[in-house]
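Translate structure to sequence.
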């Protein structure tokens, strides 16, 4: 797990959004997998991500299409935004 810097986070978020768009455009069925740290408060009643999860895009057979690290805390809306 890499330490998130603001610049690195922006770059990683763009890379993640681009990966989502690319695979959506090609009509693939894909499964985004957000790999949180065990201490992340997403697992508590707050359900808010406070870690720096790896974002992995997998196809239906479980193959990794894209992996983005260091994009900062996960926001569920980032998946919605990529689908517009
Ligand atoms: Zn998290």
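Result:
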């Amino acid at each position: 797990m890499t330490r998130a810097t603001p610049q690195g986070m922006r770059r990683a978020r763009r890379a993640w959004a681009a990966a989502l768009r690319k695979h959506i455009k090609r009509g693939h069925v894909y499964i985004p997998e957000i790999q949180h740290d065990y201490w992340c408060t997403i697992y508590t009643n707050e359900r808010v991500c406070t870690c720096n999860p790896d974002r992995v895009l997998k196809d239906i057979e479980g193959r990794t299409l894209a992996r983005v690290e260091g994009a900062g805390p996960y926001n569920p809306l980032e998946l919605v935004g990529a689908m517009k």
